[in-house]
Recover the amino acids of this structure.
């Protein structure tokens, strides 16, 4: 059962080959069997079986929505009513969400079964899942390497077949990078496409939720359920949601692919470059045209990002004060002591670094030099993309400068870890959609191809990914021991 | 640009963020590294560039002035660190 995609499972459930309860049991058993991967923070066995029972009833009545009875899992950043929502932090280790995120609500309405909540970097700050209060996640392709981050639990769970598909969030690459490192398909939608209501905030002008799945077809089904206008999110965009399945089979003849020379410079690992060139050659066989483009502002994305993301994080995380919810220190002496110690004892080192950086960047006298400057650089980066999309339909490039690195290898040097986000960050600054698909292996570890699209062009991205997946089988490979 | 231990303590106080004395030097080093990284932006002339406020140049949406929140008081009180008689307890402010 765990080898099937969503489309295959939906058929099997309707043909009564097995029930949703049986399917859910099969996945719950696998989650237990592979618990050492540490991809789940909370497993919601009881609720999952209740939902699966309800799904079986709905299926027997007919006309149930497509995701009915499909076992998925949520990144632990999405609030789930009555279930612990930790955001990977000691601060929220005792937090039982009093409401559902819109994304969770939409999956419930679509009939999906939630297996549990997935491990992640603390407050989504990290590129290796090692900043989680609950510990690192192992990459199923090599358990001594990281699963990527911040949606590391999400990517590992899909790669190890512990859930058929999952959600993730992406502020600087947190869906695409772990998807690449674990050999799965992950899509970061246009800013405003998926509601942020109930998705715990890190950097509000960059955060965006999206699907992570075995292939583009499943990702399209998930995005269909997740996307849409939400009056509860003031930055949600009121634009119609197209049928993402319908356009999957479109031909790629005449598709214009832009390759920024800054993405394929000497800094890129030559083995990864070779893998990506082979993927691009496959696209040329499918009828696409390739054009070299130049995006000179890309190199300023990392500095601008670490000002904007840190500044917004310091503001967003000021709500954790030990008063109404979350962690509170023992025996606070006065209010300042309550705030200072509760925050000091419950936040990890990476979160503290970014709060300090953001507080500094926003403090009196520094605002213009840092935040305002970064927002101007952001405009220049976004203009680079606008120019590029006047010439090409999609942009392709790497997701990560390396395959999965060893657990513990980079954690001591935060700056080196930040540089790992070099290919993904600019897309968040511009608010564009992008996805990562498996494009091959280097030393038996998965490599991802990044495909970037124009605003609200998710349907085209999924189409471009799906057509490649009709010709290749990288996305069908399963890590040894998890078949 | 490099930050001193005193700078870090001042910023930590502004953020009401407790940092152990033994870690201050480490944070000073990390933050100085971050500021060096950020300083790369200064190579760009942004004099006539407008700051980007929203990726899609959207303006803040307004909604009708009606109550939309539901009352979740019981749930909120249930997850609070300390409550008494329906009130959130915090340490006294005035000594």
């Amino acid at each position: 059962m765990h080898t099937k995609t969503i489309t295959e499972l939906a058929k099997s459930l309707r043909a009564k080959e097995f029930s949703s309860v049986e399917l859910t049991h099969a996945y719950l058993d696998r989650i237990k069997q592979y618990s050492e991967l540490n991809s789940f923070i909370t497993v919601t066995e009881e609720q999952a079986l209740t939902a699966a029972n309800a799904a079986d009833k709905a299926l027997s009545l007919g006309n149930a929505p497509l995701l009915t009875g499909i076992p998925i899992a949520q990144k632990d950043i999405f609030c789930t009513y009555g279930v612990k929502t930790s955001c990977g932090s000691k601060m929220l280790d005792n937090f039982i969400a009093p409401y559902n995120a819109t994304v969770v609500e939409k999956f419930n309405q679509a009939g999906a079964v939630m297996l549990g909540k997935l491990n992640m970097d603390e407050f989504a700050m990290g590129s290796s899942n090692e900043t989680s209060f609950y510990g690192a996640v192992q990459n199923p392709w090599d358990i001594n390497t990281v699963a990527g981050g911040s949606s590391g639990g999400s990517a590992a769970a899909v790669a190890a077949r512990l859930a058929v598909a999952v959600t993730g969030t992406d502020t600087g690459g947190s869906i695409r990078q772990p998807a690449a490192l674990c050999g799965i398909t992950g899509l970061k939608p246009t800013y405003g496409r998926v509601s942020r209501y109930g998705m715990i905030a890190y950097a509000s002008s960059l955060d965006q939720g999206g699907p992570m799945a075995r292939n583009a077809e499943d990702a399209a089904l998930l995005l269909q359920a997740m996307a849409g206008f939400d009056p509860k999110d003031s930055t949600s965009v009121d634009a119609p949601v197209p049928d993402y399945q319908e356009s999957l089979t479109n031909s790629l003849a005449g598709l214009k692919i832009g390759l920024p020379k800054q993405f394929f410079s000497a800094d890129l690992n030559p083995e990864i470059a070779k893998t990506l060139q082979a993927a691009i050659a496959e696209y040329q066989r499918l009828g696409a045209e390739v054009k070299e483009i130049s995006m000179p502002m890309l190199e300023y994305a990392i500095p601008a990002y670490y000002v904007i993301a840190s500044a917004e994080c310091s503001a967003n995380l000021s709500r954790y004060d030990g008063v109404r919810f979350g962690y509170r220190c023992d025996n606070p002496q006065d209010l300042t002591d309550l705030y200072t110690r509760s925050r000091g004892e419950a936040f990890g080192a990476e979160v503290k670094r970014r709060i300090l950086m953001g507080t500094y960047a926003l403090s009196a006298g520094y605002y213009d030099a840092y935040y305002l400057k970064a927002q101007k650089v952001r405009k220049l980066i976004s203009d680079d993309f606008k120019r590029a999309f006047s010439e090409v339909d999609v942009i392709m490039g790497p997701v990560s400068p390396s395959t999965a690195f060893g657990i513990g290898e980079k954690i001591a040097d935060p700056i080196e870890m930040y540089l790992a986000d070099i290919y993904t960050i600019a897309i968040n600054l511009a608010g564009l959609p992008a996805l990562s698909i498996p494009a091959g292996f280097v030393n038996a570890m998965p490599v991802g191809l990044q495909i970037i699209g124009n605003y609200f062009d998710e349907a085209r991205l999924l189409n471009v990914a799906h057509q490649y997946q009709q010709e290749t089988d990288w996305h069908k490979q399963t890590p040894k021991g998890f078949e | 640009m490099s930050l001193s231990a005193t700078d870090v303590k001042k910023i930590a106080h502004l953020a009401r963020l407790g940092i152990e004395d033994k870690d201050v030097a480490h944070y000073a080093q990390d933050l100085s590294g971050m500021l060096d990284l950020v300083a790369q932006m200064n190579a760009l002339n942004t004099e006539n560039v407008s700051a980007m406020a929203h990726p899609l140049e959207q303006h803040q949406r307004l909604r009708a002035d009606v109550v939309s929140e539901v009352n979740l008081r019981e749930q909120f009180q249930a997850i609070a660190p300390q409550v008494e008689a329906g009130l959130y307890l915090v340490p006294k402010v005035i000594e």
Q: What stands out?
A: Residues 368-389 of chain A form the longest helix (22 residues).
